[in-house]
Amino acid sequence: MKRLLLTGAAGGLGSAMRGRLKGLAEIVRVSDIVDLGPVADHEEAVVCDLGDHSAVDRLVAGCDGIIHLGGISVEDKFSKIMNANLLGLYNLYEAARANGMPRILFASSNHTIGFYRQDEYLDHEAPLRPDGLYGVSKCFGEALARMYFEKFGQETALVRIGSCMEKPKSHRMLSTWMSYDDFLSMIECVFRAPRLGCPVIWGCSNNDTRWWDNSHVSYLGWHPRDNAERFRGEIDEAMPKPRPDDPIAIYQGGPFVNDPIFPED
Amino acid sequence: MKRLLLTGAAGGLGSAMRGRLKGLAEIVRVSDIVDLGPVADHEEAVVCDLGDHSAVDRLVAGCDGIIHLGGISVEDKFSKIMNANLLGLYNLYEAARANGMPRILFASSNHTIGFYRQDEYLDHEAPLRPDGLYGVSKCFGEALARMYFEKFGQETALVRIGSCMEKPKSHRMLSTWMSYDDFLSMIECVFRAPRLGCPVIWGCSNNDTRWWDNSHVSYLGWHPRDNAERFRGEIDEAMPKPRPDDPIAIYQGGPFVNDPIFPED
Amino acid sequence: MKRLLLTGAAGGLGSAMRGRLKGLAEIVRVSDIVDLGPVADHEEAVVCDLGDHSAVDRLVAGCDGIIHLGGISVEDKFSKIMNANLLGLYNLYEAARANGMPRILFASSNHTIGFYRQDEYLDHEAPLRPDGLYGVSKCFGEALARMYFEKFGQETALVRIGSCMEKPKSHRMLSTWMSYDDFLSMIECVFRAPRLGCPVIWGCSNNDTRWWDNSHVSYLGWHPRDNAERFRGEIDEAMPKPRPDDPIAIYQGGPFVNDPIFPED
Amino acid sequence: MKRLLLTGAAGGLGSAMRGRLKGLAEIVRVSDIVDLGPVADHEEAVVCDLGDHSAVDRLVAGCDGIIHLGGISVEDKFSKIMNANLLGLYNLYEAARANGMPRILFASSNHTIGFYRQDEYLDHEAPLRPDGLYGVSKCFGEALARMYFEKFGQETALVRIGSCMEKPKSHRMLSTWMSYDDFLSMIECVFRAPRLGCPVIWGCSNNDTRWWDNSHVSYLGWHPRDNAERFRGEIDEAMPKPRPDDPIAIYQGGPFVNDPIFPED
Amino acid sequence: MKRLLLTGAAGGLGSAMRGRLKGLAEIVRVSDIVDLGPVADHEEAVVCDLGDHSAVDRLVAGCDGIIHLGGISVEDKFSKIMNANLLGLYNLYEAARANGMPRILFASSNHTIGFYRQDEYLDHEAPLRPDGLYGVSKCFGEALARMYFEKFGQETALVRIGSCMEKPKSHRMLSTWMSYDDFLSMIECVFRAPRLGCPVIWGCSNNDTRWWDNSHVSYLGWHPRDNAERFRGEIDEAMPKPRPDDPIAIYQGGPFVNDPIFPED
Amino acid sequence: MKRLLLTGAAGGLGSAMRGRLKGLAEIVRVSDIVDLGPVADHEEAVVCDLGDHSAVDRLVAGCDGIIHLGGISVEDKFSKIMNANLLGLYNLYEAARANGMPRILFASSNHTIGFYRQDEYLDHEAPLRPDGLYGVSKCFGEALARMYFEKFGQETALVRIGSCMEKPKSHRMLSTWMSYDDFLSMIECVFRAPRLGCPVIWGCSNNDTRWWDNSHVSYLGWHPRDNAERFRGEIDEAMPKPRPDDPIAIYQGGPFVNDPIFPED
């Protein structure tokens, strides 16, 4: 690739992945709504509000691949989610359509299916069961991406990220964790495939206690190598086991199922 | 029921159903963003913009059932769909939550699955394949309703309406048509059931060439009686058969699959 | 058939069916643990405790068909269920094996799956979810019958009876009711078929609000004609609608899910 | 249609349907390898060996619909089946491809799945289990038709005919019978549909004891009206019930499963 | 755990596992109907007849986990199976319910599904096909456990043990073998999980020729490490290969399918 | 085995496997329609036209296992495919039936399902979608083998070979490649199993990007060890990536989907 766009580059996950993308494209265009800090030689930085249609158009122009981590990534009030995750995503897809339809990796979320229990094993066709407004916004995103695929041929990987961080931080994350290395190798597979289509990809490492079945995307050849199990001792020491009647031990979405609807001010 | 709310009561479908709801509740509160015309003895009329949070709250207060036909019901520009079908639906569910969670019949649409071919027979768990921004907004609505059900217990019937009108107007509608009488009997079943849950219901009559399987909601006891087949001759006379390569003959969503994205001004 | 055995002939369902069996066999051998009352010309009566191995053997000898309604048919203490429904059923199958393996219609029950919700539509392969010791005993019976089928070729119809009575007596029975006429026509189909195998048959009439799918036994040609719906008005008048949080409105097994384990004295 | 071709028109089924096709097209071209008898005004007769490539090409030229009943329709020696059902079918599809790809109704057979038991209920995706060389030749035909559909767009209805005759002649045919009227209405549906695709259609009437599920082709709107059940008494009188261990009572293919491989001379 | 109960501790499997349980709880209460031999420091021994209600109650009191290997574990006469595996299991669950509902690992068996062929690959929802009275008693046990789970919240792991022994002893066991180490690691996973539910777990090692799919319990994180394949040479030398028509080569239940019903004396 | 027959031994795959079969049987009978070159000590060579019934009978006589690679293995004109793959296969099965029914490994092909897209993951029951006359002939072969299995008990492994060669030669083959070593170990498993049945086996190595699920034959214990992924670099260097709209990047059958029907001369 010549130019790869990373949105949400100043966020937690964005910051972590930004440094790892160097080899994937000649130029990595990093973007966020806040300042992006120092810019490396292979980077170009663009501050952009996803809710601004023409700014997003300029952002996407010239890119031949997009990793879309931007937007709200936790439960929040609806107006903020609407601007960033609904209007923002529409803007992104319109910009992609106007600029040659670069392939998109869309950071969807396990919160699209957060109300499944942790003793259920899901495949990619499990009906949606979002656990909050954030999860609902990701359901919207998946539907929007699917429509652009069927109508215009726009390809997207719908990555339902579990918990992508340096290491798992709770007992639940022993199931949902995805290491940065595994995310990176997934990104490589997504942009390498001659044809991608518009598949759901479950975003977790090769964890002993994983809940999700990725065999339907075996054509991508992604084989995560990390396993959260090696952190079990550390977590057992750091915190008590969740009680069986705690949502964090019941639902795949964990504590999100308990979040209230956040009121507008 | 004491008071049943009908939104979108000035629209095409709303107008047709309004007169038929008399026996279902003591008072039918009819609502739309435009004038509602003469008001019958058993009715009360409320003009309301669904995008207005507190207006919607007042609209819902005191109702113990909601038939939500309001919002945009064809392809349109995103800003309008966002206001009416995304923000508007959020407002409606927040209002319901604040007002005793009256049961909701939500007019979803076959355009949530419009990209399936007409030779496919669908059940309620078929993955979504919306055919435009309107269809995407209905996917959002179904996800939002599902979340309110799992999180708060709010019950909704997700009615994927085919073509609800006086009679079918095209060859495609021989499959998708739902008569007003059948819609009315469905409404009765939905509000009669001791427990509803949050099921998808395919909204079409007992047409010979129907595409959709409602056996999963047989617990509701809805048995549509009409059959579009009796209009075949009339339609054959009125218009030529669609050509096999015309989307109206290929896709369940019919002409919607050809709609462009409508530009903002 | 020359001689058809009816067990449980003095029970509620047995008494109702006894008179209807006349045309099915030259002799109907009616049996129960209590007195059987006056005996018709085409009948012979045998008082028998199902827990008595050799008495059951004598009961079955000479029969070329068995309708097994005998045993405990409601929740009860385990010792009684064990004697009648576990030991008793074992005795019956051993007697059948020793006496030419007459075809058996076994009265299983919807209480084998009573913990499914009423908004679920079940096929015959739905995993078992019994709602009490009685339901568990019927799960045992189905497993025993299946084993005798695979090991010895003994054929059995596993009839999961809903509510077989003169008419439905509650809102739940609008879904589960089976009329005596429909049960009779099922019995005829079961004994008429050249080969029966060992199928599950859902025992309910053609009710508008039925929960169960019998298409897998369409080879038997059973088409129930009655429909509980015509009793809806009568029931609506006779009793209040169940509240949505009442198990009678939630679970297919209805009030059985609330039964305690009955203590031994 | 202007010209409809009927192959196998001198065979048992062909003779019966020939007279019924009058209204379907201006001209019905009837064909067989043997003499076709008197020719009606709306007919033209062509004697043709399906194994003769150029004769088949001439046969198909000018037709805009084909009902292909020709070929061997019972178990026979391989050389005959190969000529008529393998080479002959290839010739037919090549001729269709060369002549504008008229829609084809291909008489496949229940003998493609004859080794399923009669207590199994099949949908159109059940893996093939042919019961003889004849059944294997129909599996070949279905595969060939499918390939021409995917590669060239040639549409075919793969009609797995049960027992199409004036009335059922055995207990097995109470399940497999298709009346001439129902076959005719199916033909009308197949040629009427704007798009057909390449579906399997189970060819039996609305028999009480049918084994096959046609819901996947509900888009065609075919609703068979006849029911073999009304002939049960007649059959019960005319012949003894099959014994349970007779293949005619065990397998869907009935006596075909017992046919030997017919030796070449 | 403070106190872990092991029933059947004097049996073949019980003896093997008894020594391995040391680290799992402060005290291991070992129990059987026969003498339990020398008792280790971390152990307490209780002789108990499972058929004795109050003895079982005392046995369970004070335990916070139960590994239930007790009862009859091969084909036997019904009276013995009824006492130990039906009444005994009921007693155990009543005792658990009266004593704080400690989590239970229940030794179910592959003989619940013994009549499946060895060329079938099963998931946990495959309908039951027991191969004898012993297998039927385990079907009863699974149904009873399920009912206690749904009704009272009692958690159980339904472990369908294949062949748990030091090493495989026949060609069939190359598929069914579970090593003691793998069973131990499964036990650890079962008692470690914050929530268990009531899942079926197939009890075999990571054998090359396994028949059973455990992906539905991937949330438990059990990864068996042993593989019976390394014993193939040894078995090939020790005994002839089974003949293809020997049930040991046909059915998953192996020789059990040939066991007769054992007569009462 | 005493004598193992290898047909097609002079072809590309036959030549490669011929040398590897030494240890599998005392005598390897190698056969082809062309000269077989020098014959090793453990071999016997037979030149044979598969279209010649009695020659094939002599070929099979005395063999207790058959690896059938013979016939046409690419797209060709129908007359040639009919002789070698239809008539030839019939001859082979008749010869096997007349000679003790030695187990057969039949080289079927991925071209039976070549019209599935590369982003679909298939199990063994996916409906057939052949991509040419060659693929259709393999569908015929699978149906014929199945019929001989059900009717006569003849066992066959239906091996849908991907690309069996020394190393993958295109990007598509990174998914479809099967190494010679893996094919050899599959052959060993097929002939070792006490019972084989008539299963489909997907013939590819343990490639990162494989499309096919072999879990249903886990009872055979075949675990391919090679992985085409290690050749990715080599292929990336040797040729450009396929364009996304090139059939080689879209369909599992790759370039075969573009093959025309080859005309007879």
TrEMBL record, chains A, B, C, D, E, F:
GO molecular function, one term: uronate dehydrogenase activity
InterPro entries with a match to the protein in the record: Epimerase_deHydtase, NAD(P)-bd_dom_sf
Keyword field: NAD, Oxidoreductase
Enzyme class: oxidoreductase
The enzyme's E.C. designation: 1.1.1.203
Occurrences of domain NAD-dependent epimerase/dehydratase (ranges): 5-162
Family the entry assigns: Belongs to the NAD(P)-dependent epimerase/dehydratase family.
Stated name of the protein: Uronate dehydrogenase
Native source species: Rhizobium rosettiformans
